[in-house]
Amino acid sequence: MSPRERVRKAISHQEADRIPVDLGSTLVTGIQASTYAKLRRALGLKDEPVKIADPFQMLSYVEMEVIERLGIDTIGLWLPTTIFGFKREGWKPWRLFDGTKVMVPEKFNTTTDEKGNIYLYPEGDTSAPPSGKMPQGGYYFDVIVRQEAIDEEKLDPEEWVRQQYSVFSEEELKYLERTADALYKNTELSIVGEFVDAGFGDIALVPAPMVRYPKGIRDPQRWIMAHLEHPEYIKGIFELQCEIALKNLELSYEAVGDKIDVIMVSGTDFGTQSGPFISPDMYREIYKPFHKRINDWIHKNTSWKTFYHSCGSIVAFLDDFVEAGVDILNPVQTSAKDMDPKMLKERYGDKLVFWGGGVDTQRTLPFGSPEEVRRQVSERCRIFGKGGGYVFSAIHNIQQKVPIENLMAMFEAVREFRY
């Protein structure tokens, strides 16, 4: 069975010959560059600079030689532009604080202050205020909130959306078409598409790190409060954003067709470690109608499955996610309150595909023993894999300082697992 066939079985709630595995197909199933460099060395591959796919989280591209050696079943069709507004092209060398050699896009332009903090700029424009900060000794960038003074009597949804979202250009569509064709013809991997336009309220995007001088409510705390104080403003933004997203979905489908199996629609977190960010009623009023419009279009016009990422304790939203047409749930944060794996599989295993939940990246993977990692991976595969509807990946991205023995134990355990 090919990787593409294996994933298609799993996302159709059928058992394949084995559980499919994802590493690096999305911005939320990736691996931090320093850890990826260690993984390459452990696999006996040439020690060379790691190519950065996502400068925000300092995630590496996962190369074909690693995909083949580890038995990975997926690959990402990423958009040409990063969260900081510059393209993934024209590579140049850079180095992380721990000495890891990486390759970054040509417009990855930085400055350093007297304390050693590194600043990154929207579209690579160092004449604008920086939009990202890597603290001295850090491993990834924090988005900088550049909140201008706001006249709350003159909040303008159109201004907010116009700065951040637009209909795909011919150049972008040609890139998607060309890249999808190459991935489909030259690999047997299941292709996962990136689509950020429908990530309504994604806290990583609200500060607009890709925009030189963002307008409107951009502070995440103010944004959350605006759900209560200015709900019509939030809805107005989502309405305009949804119109652009639907147009871009139509154009994307014309460009790539059914070559992709899955599309990552949203990365908006609705949960914290201990409970929801917002109430279920607020989700139903503000978010659910837009999620449903997006998912309904995808299901009516394509064969794609919809992939939604939401960290934290989100049990309170799952029935609404199902009603809104969510097909795939990630990262399945079983370390959060009430996110018990057995309960999730029993209650939602026939309604949602679980993509993640394979190992706890907060405790077990970085701090457990290799045997503890193996036990947890095997248990999760046994629970989530039964009857299909499961793609293995860690809970969110694999972070820095994970012992390589634990990482190898994770891949070995899922490879050895049998239903």
Automatic annotation (TrEMBL):
Transmembrane segments: none annotated. Residues 219-417 form the Uroporphyrinogen decarboxylase (URO-D) domain. GO terms for molecular function: methyltransferase activity; uroporphyrinogen decarboxylase activity. The keyword Methyltransferase applies. GO terms for biological process: methylation; porphyrin-containing compound biosynthetic process. Keywords: Methyltransferase, Transferase. It comes from the Bacteria. The keyword Transferase applies. Pfam families: URO-D. InterPro entries: Methanogen_methyltrans, UROD/MetE-like_sf, Uroporphyrinogen_deCOase. PANTHER family: METHYLCOBAMIDE:COM METHYLTRANSFERASE MTBA (PTHR47099:SF1). This is Methyltransferase. It comes from Aerophobetes bacterium.
